[in-house]
Amino acid sequence: GAVVSQHPSWVICKSGTSVKIECRSLDFQATTMFWYRQFPKQSLMLMATSNEGSKATYEQGVEKDKFLINHASLTLSTLTVTSAHPEDSSFYICSARTGIDNQPQHFGDGTRLSIL
Amino acid sequence: LAKTTQPISMDSYEGQEVNITCSHNNIATNDYITWYQQFPSQGPRFIIQGYKTKVTNEVASLFIPADRKSSTLSLPRVSLSDTAVYYCLVGEKNQGGKLIFGQGTELSVKP
């Protein structure tokens, strides 16, 4: 149980385009989802917290107009990287948790984004 | 959120028991301690979670002393496939379950 799926797992696109990444909780309802990015040989950096039906809460230094997050249902959150540039190339990972107290976050397998 | 400190790297050999200790001096009363494992180009995988004393599951044990200012993840009889980065995190539900990742411990298991 507690499976989180991300799609796509790998994407290459041209500079200036927008890219959407999906995060789905397959066998549970996720009241809260989180988005992270990870550069090579570094730890995960929390970008934003997404609650179903409300606006995402962004961490300091993360541009909300650059990284659009939508959490329209209890099983789906999307991250759209708008007008992507090479410096946005990274590994993006989502996680999800239920509303049950102290249940751990479950992570997707990440999306490798490469901007040319 | 409580900050965690772990060794940056550890080496071990197949079949040995590995203990990774994490320091979290500012842990709050409502904080739980959670450990994750991450392989390259994959998302972190949940290993174990605990609040106090000892927790054991099919893959690991977690030891938490009474003051809860540290915790030790114990991996019995490691194999080559346990080579990964291990993260210790503390967090609690009243903060929406937000977790802040530290640097983690890069465990290398050798034959």
What structural class should be given to the helix and strand makeup of chain B? mainly beta
* Rg of chain B: 13 Å
Shape of chain B: globular
Count of beta strands of chain B: 9
Biggest protein-protein contact in the assembly? A-B, 27 and 23 residues
Oligomer: heterodimer
Helical residue percent of chain A? under 10%
Largest sheet of chain B: 5 strands, mixed
Instruction: Flag low-confidence runs of chain A.
Output: none
Q: What is the string of SSEs of chain B from the N terminus onward?
A: EEEEEEEEE
The tally of beta strands of chain A, per DSSP, is 11
* Number of separate helices of chain B: 0
Instruction: Quote the average pLDDT of chain B.
Output: 92
Strand content of chain B: over 45%
* Helicity of chain B, as a percent range: under 10%
Task: Give a brief outline of the structure.
The complex is a heterodimer of chains A (116) and B (111). Chain A is an all-beta fold and 116 residues long.
List the helices and strands and how they pair.
The complex is a heterodimer of chains A (116) and B (111).
Chain A: E1 4-7, E2 10-13, E3 19-25, E4 32-38, E5 44-51, E6 57-58, E7 67-73, E8 76-81, E9 90-97, E10 106-107, E11 111-115
Parallel strand pairs in A: 2-11
Antiparallel strand pairs in A: 1-3, 3-8, 4-5, 4-9, 5-6, 7-8, 9-10, 9-11
Chain B: E1 9-13, E2 18-23, E3 32-38, E4 45-50, E5 53-56, E6 61-64, E7 70-75, E8 84-91, E9 105-110
Parallel strand pairs in B: 1-9
Antiparallel strand pairs in B: 2-7, 3-4, 3-8, 5-6, 6-7, 8-9
Structure, described:
The complex is a heterodimer of chains A (116) and B (111). Chain A has 116 residues and is an all-beta fold. Chain A has no helices and eleven strands. In chain A, the strands form two sheets. In chain A, strands 2, 4, 5, 6, 9, 10 and 11 form a seven-stranded mixed β-sheet that branches. In chain A, strands 1-3-8-7 form a four-stranded antiparallel β-sheet, with no helix packed on it. In chain A, strand 5 and strand 6 form a beta hairpin. Chain A is globular and about 40 Å long. Chain A starts with a strand and ends with a strand. By secondary structure, chain B is mostly beta strands. Chain B is 0% helix and 47% strand. Chain B has no helices and nine strands. In chain B, the strands form two sheets. Chain B has a five-stranded mixed β-sheet with strand order 1-9-8-3-4, with no helix packed on it. Chain B has a four-stranded antiparallel β-sheet with strand order 2-7-6-5, with no helix packed on it. The chains are: A mainly beta (116), B mainly beta (111). The A-B interface holds A 2, 4, 6, 32, 34, 36, 43-46, 49, 51, 91, 93-95, 97, 101-102, 104-110, 112 and B 32, 34, 36, 41-46, 49, 51, 87, 92-93, 96-104.
